[in-house]
Design goal:
Elements: H1 3-6, H2 15-32, H3 37-61, H4 71-90, H5 99-102, H6 110-140
The protein binds flavin-adenine dinucleotide.
Length: 141
């Protein structure tokens, strides 16, 4: 459980939380399989795996530059963070808050957080493409 199976940097402060979730999910799997460990482990894997990839992606993207490892990347990350924060304040039904803030909401699973963050990323890319195309049309017309 915990760091023994998915150790990641402490950037998003989820090491203890995700370790405790592991324990709860294993408990659930053991309950469902009458404490039969050889049935419980595959069940544990199938219940837990849907959150593990999102958790790894969140550790890589939600707040990766807080120790000043790469000043330029940190600046770009800050722009991205405050842009999402601002857009969420103005249009909350379209843009989700930054993933690092969504992580503080204990009612959301890592998978739900990742889906929300990705949805906002796709909208931002679409807006960027529309802006560039509009600029090119304006410039060359
Ligand atoms: C600098 C830093 C900052 C962090 N900040 C945060 C934070 O803000 N929030 C957060 O949620 N997480 C944070 N984490 C991550 C968090 O500490 C870990 O994810 C969490 O402690 C993992 O719990 P665990 O029970 O899986 O492992 P551990 O806490 O490492 O527990 C494993 C235990 O097993 C013992 N052990 C090992 N081998 C044996 C053996 N052979 N026999 C008996 N015992 C053994 C070890 O001594 C240890 O006590 C941080 C980590 C670091 C390094």
């Amino acid at each position: 459980m915990g760091d023994a199976i998915h150790c990641f940097p402490p950037d998003i402060g989820q090491g203890v939380n995700s370790a405790l979730e592991d324990v709860c999910v294993l408990h659930e799997a053991l309950s469902q399989s009458n404490d039969n460990i050889s049935q419980a482990l595959p069940l544990y894997e199938s219940l837990r795996s849907k959150d593990l990839k999102p958790l790894i992606r969140l550790a890589q993207t939600a707040f990766p530059w807080q120790y000043n490892q790469a000043p330029l990347s940190r600046k770009l990350w800050n722009v991205n963070f405050f842009l999402r924060l601002l857009l969420n304040r103005v249009l909350p039904f379209i843009f989700s808050p930054p993933a690092f803030l969504l992580i503080q909401n204990y009612q959301l699973s890592y998978q739900e957080i990742w889906v929300k963050a990705q949805r906002t990323t796709k909208i931002l890319y679409a807006l960027g493409i529309i802006l560039i195309c509009s600029f090119l049309v304006w410039k060359f017309s």
